[in-house]
Design goal:
Elements lengths: L6 H7 L2 H6 L2 E2 L1 E3 L4 H14 L3 E5 L21 H15 L5 E4 L18 H4 L6 H18 L3 E2 L24 H16 L4 E2 L1 E4 L20 H6 L3 H8 L4 E4 L19 H11 L5 E4 L5 H4 L7 H9 L4 E2 L4 H11 L2 H18 L14 H11 L1 E4 L2 H9 L3 E5 L8 H14 L4 E6 L14 H13 L1 E6 L16 E4 L5 H11 L18
Parallel strand pairs: 1-10, 2-3, 3-4, 4-5, 5-6, 7-8, 8-9, 12-13, 13-14, 14-15
Antiparallel strand pairs: 11-15
Helix pairs in contact: 3-4, 6-7, 7-9, 12-13, 15-19
């Protein structure tokens, strides 16, 4: 791998065009074809690209918004990732800054790698922020094993909209103070291993039911309200000298003088609110510029890249038109603009790309930490431990509602429900629900037949309910007649094991819901 160049040397060695190339962060796909890999190698070498952001494949969620392409899983993705990073670094004249979204670990993008809990799960932890430090630290160590310098997280959006289709489980919750405390602990843990972070999605993507991958969300709040809530975590972390801020694709008229322009191309928001009002001096990175919230509005190649740079973004993430973008910036930007952004970007690279004395060679084992997190997170939402004990001692029957790989159509689901109903012979039901999806779209992929069955059970039987997923699922379920409701948040083995211990009365539920659930807070 390249040795980093001192900043003073770089000023002399890089041409203005090469400096502009350092602002560009194209997407790199782990499961690309050899032809596609060679095309990216050529782009890097010919245009002086400064960084890459890795994704699983061209069919993954970050590029396949409508879900029309099938994602093909590859057990060797992690090895491919390491090999590609080595290849792409060799193609670069100057060291590439390698980034990835690893909010809950490399598993967010790479199968068969360590997975840690979603932010909403960590949001249930009470007064144990050292655990979030450990999560950040573990994920950072895994990034270093892969050759990654920059974890594009954590999310510091205050999620106060239960219908949010894209943030939700990625947020630490709806309380700005707790979001800030947990995000800061995660950031400190990441920094302890020399890995960069980026807080996102400025100025706050929490209070919307619109997915910015598809459309431009409107945040119609006053400036005072935004500073009091949405911008609070950003300000606190800026005061802690966080490495970078990612700008979301959001329409926030209160910060743009009434304009509906996206925050990602708004000078008022980036140069005004973020830089001037909030005093941020670090690197500003755009959210992915392929997202339909902005990309569909600019058909001329290079135009969006120029608008994003001119608005104040230093790094242009998921740029799809790097050569045209470089040319347009060179044509339109002042030398001062280019030099100021280059200085910020290069100093960030100097900080992150350093020789390792004792390189990390092995991925972390998440089970022990996940067990501690399960102990801290699992939440008794309704009922008491004594009521669960009495239920257990009377004898019970278990019913599990979960995704069945063989069941897809409505007729198949109805048949599955009939079989389950026929098998019920006990008055006391231990009901386990594992929602197929963490996002609320289509009721978390829980079918109407399954919801009706769940409600019949709760109405006609004595039910203790454990939910192994997003707590917002509970907004769909009429739990008034349930004896007890427990939110487990995750479905990994560590969380399953702790839930079993809890049901057996061996341990307590120590968490607290990080978001409001109807009738349960």
């Amino acid at each position: 791998m390249h040795r980093p160049i001192a900043y003073s040397e770089a000023r002399k060695q890089l041409s203005l065009k090469e400096k502009v190339g350092q602002f560009f962060m194209p997407a790199a796909f782990i499961n690309d074809s050899e032809t596609e890999i060679q095309q990216l190698e050529s782009l890097i070498s010919e245009h002086g690209i400064g960084s890459l952001c890795f994704f699983h494949s061209r069919a993954s969620a970050a590029t396949n918004f409508e879900g029309l392409k099938e994602v093909v899983y590859n057990a060797d993705s992690f090895d491919l990732l390491k090999q590609l990073i080595t290849r792409y670094q060799k193609a670069a004249k100057h060291p590439l800054l390698i980034a990835i979204d690893a909010e809950w670990g490399l598993a967010m993008r790479v199968e068969n790698t360590p997975q840690y809990p979603y932010a909403i799960t960590l949001g249930a932890i009470q007064d144990q922020n050292e655990l979030l430090f450990e999560v950040g630290k573990h994920i950072a160590c895994d990034c270093k094993v892969a050759g990654i310098h920059w974890n594009l997280g954590p999310v510091v959006d205050v999620n106060n909209n239960p219908h949010n289709p894209v943030i939700g489980y990625r947020s630490f919750g709806e309380n700005k103070i707790k979001v800030t405390e947990k995000a800061l602990a995660f950031v400190k843990g990441t920094e302890s291993q020399g890995v960069l972070t980026s807080i996102k999605h400025f100025p706050g993507h929490g209070d919307t039911a619109t997915d910015s991958h598809l459309e431009l969300p409107l945040i119609n709040k006053t400036k005072e309200a935004l500073f009091a809530n949405e911008l609070y975590p950003f300000q606190k972390l800026i005061d802690e000298k966080v490495d970078s801020v990612m700008i979301g694709h959001l329409s926030v008229p209160a910060l743009t003088g009434g304009s509906l322009i996206s925050s990602s191309i708004s000078k008022n928001i980036i140069k005004g609110t973020l830089r001037t009002d909030m005093g941020f001096k670090g690197v500003v990175i755009s959210d992915a510029l392929n997202m339909h919230a902005v990309a569909k509005n600019y058909s001329v190649k290079g135009e969006l890249e120029w608008l994003a740079f001119d608005a104040g973004n230093d790094v242009l993430c998921f740029t799809e038109h790097a050569p045209e973008g470089i040319a347009t910036i060179l044509k339109n930007a002042t030398t001062t603009q280019i030099e100021e952004s280059f200085e910020r970007v290069w100093r960030l690279k100097e900080k992150a790309i350093v020789p390792e004395k004792t390189p990390h060679k092995k991925l972390s084992d998440p089970h022990l930490l996940n067990s501690k997190l399960a102990e801290a997170c699992i939440t008794l939402v309704k009922g008491t431990e004594n009521e669960i004990t009495a239920f257990r001692e009377k004898g019970y029957q278990s019913v599990h509602i979960k995704k069945d790989g063989e069941t897809h159509g409505s007729d198949e689901i109805k048949k599955k429900i009939k079989i389950l109903e026929a098998q019920i012979s006990n008055e006391h039901i231990l009901l386990l629900i594992t929602p197929p999806k963490a996002k609320p779209i289509n009721n978390f992929e829980i079918s109407s037949y399954e919801l009706d069955f769940i409600h019949r059970l709760i109405e006609t039987k004595k039910v203790v309910l454990y939910v192994f997923g997003n707590p917002y699922v509970l907004n769909l379920i009429k739990t008034k007649n349930a004896i007890a409701v427990i939110c487990v948040y995750q479905n990994s083995k560590a969380f399953q094991d702790y839930a079993d211990l809890h049901f057996q009365g061996a341990v307590k539920a120590n968490g607290k819901l990080p978001v409001t659930i109807k009738g349960m807070n």
